Amino acid sequence: MSVGSLKNAVVQAAARGVTEARARIFGHVLNPTGQRSPHKILRKKLIGDKVAQWYPHDIKKDDPLVMAREEQERLSKLEMLKRRGKGPPKKGQGKRASKRK
């Protein structure tokens, strides 16, 4: 080996050692190959709890009076649709059942 290539090898080894030591000391992730890594995304703080706190609790689900009124509205709308002939078909008389015949 020539003196120049030996010197380059020593310099590269020292630089690699310094880089590894710096990564250990400061808690960085060493990525010598330069491949894509999810570390940047996984390092971030999760924000799910913060987003969930922003929206108020849905009180409609807790109040039985509200739930009963919504169910009554649904049933009255369904009855109105049935009277006009626009309601859901009876079991076994839908589009799919008529295709099979």
Features:
Small ribosomal subunit protein mS33, mitochondrion, mainly alpha, 101 residues
Description:
The longest helix is centred in the N-terminal third of the chain and has 24 residues, at 3-26. The protein is elongated. The protein has helices spanning 3-26, 39-43, 48-54, 64-84, 95-100. It is mainly alpha-helical. The chain contains 5 helices and no strands. Residues 83-101 have a biased composition (Basic residues). Belongs to the mitochondrion-specific ribosomal protein mS33 family. Keywords: Mitochondrion, Ribonucleoprotein, Ribosomal protein.
Write the layout of secondary structure elements.
Blueprint: H1 3-26, H2 39-43, H3 48-54, H4 64-84, H5 95-100
InterPro entries: Ribosomal_mS33 (IPR013219)
Organism: Escallonia herrerae
Keywords: Mitochondrion, Ribonucleoprotein, Ribosomal protein
